Amino acid sequence: xxxxxxxxxxxxxxxIEKRQSQYSGKVAVSxxxxxxxxxxxxxxxxxxxxxxxxxTAFDVIExxxxxxxxxxxxxxxxxxxxxxxxxxxxxxxxTAVDAxxxxxxxxxxxxxSPLKKKIEFICRDAExxxxxxxxxxxxxxxxxxxxxxxxxEFIRKEFLLQLKKCISKNGIxxxxxxxxxxxxxxxxxxxxxxxxxVFPGSFSIDAEGNKIFVITNY
Length: 218
Known about the structure:
By secondary structure, the chain is α/β, with parallel strands linked by helices. The chain has helices at 3-8, 52-61, 80-83, 101-110, 126-132, 157-164, 182-198, and strands at residues 14-21, 25-32, 35-39, 44-46, 70-74, 93-98, 119-123, 137-142, 167-178, 203-207, 210-215. The protein has a seven-stranded mixed beta sheet with strand order 7-6-5-8-9-11-10, sandwiched between helices. A four-stranded antiparallel beta sheet has the order 1-2-3-4.
């Protein structure tokens, strides 16, 4: 991005590319406030360092003090969260899982990070991937949406029990859900009860339109 357009992006949203996604319909890449942004009709999937839901959660749990070598990201978008790891030099590998090959293609194209060489991109449904997984991770991030909806299969107890097996000893899980209206709040209240049943000692963080469900030191 040339310097003029980068400066202009702080005033307007600069369109870059549009694609037709199997899962999310039309997705658009734009350049805004100095960062690449990936959007659907009703949701922002990625927004570089301006995608603040996980950064808010990271601050709350003081992730800079945690030992993290392996990371699993379910629902990758353009990989905004990778930008948050750039000060974590001990990270050895990041597994990026997304069911949408268009999203994977866009992430490979627009993600610019020194950690990119440590990423393994996997185009697979998150439920199928988790159910077949043998490896455990120090940090698991769940950020799967179809437009602005978390698919029903991912808010069931059965999926959370499988997800639990992916977390290493003393590992961390951050599970992101939208919370922008009363309907979201009601769903998240019910989901919170299931999450606590599977992960006793868990808590939640309000993060600017998202609610992040957290378990640390599992």
